[in-house]
Amino acid sequence: MPFNKESFSELIKVHSKEIYNFCLYLTGNPNDAHDLSQDVFINAYRSIEKFRQDCAFSTWLHTIALNLYRDRMRRRKTVKFTPMDDEKEFSDKQIPVEKQLEDSELKKKILKSLDLLSQEQKVPIVLKYLEGKSLEETAKLCNCSIGTVSSRISRGIKILRGHLK
Question: pTM score, two decimals?
Fold first, then answer.
């Protein structure tokens, strides 16, 4: 794939909302998500020649986002999720208003409850259930086996269930 600024600009258009939403799930803050997603595309642009094409471009962008997020959390020494205010930022899909109202309270509780999880549990849950990644993709992004991802998800869901009762 020949690389030029125009083709990269098109890739940004295609993937920007997906990467922003992923960053928003991770950070819980629209401003932090915006900063992180911009950094993802800056890093991708700088290292586009390192993209091996052995995975989807979106998977590569998610990996960059996850690595940048982890680096920031290491520097901060804390991971803080905050409730989301604008539910419409999460999806391009049009969901009936009645369904949105039903789900919004539960979604807010679940997103707030993510604070209770360790980063090891939080990231796979976000990737699998909020980003819709397969277990294989989640394992690759988390740099661990499918069994480890399944275990982390299971433990995280158990904590979330206990908190939501």
Answer: 0.65
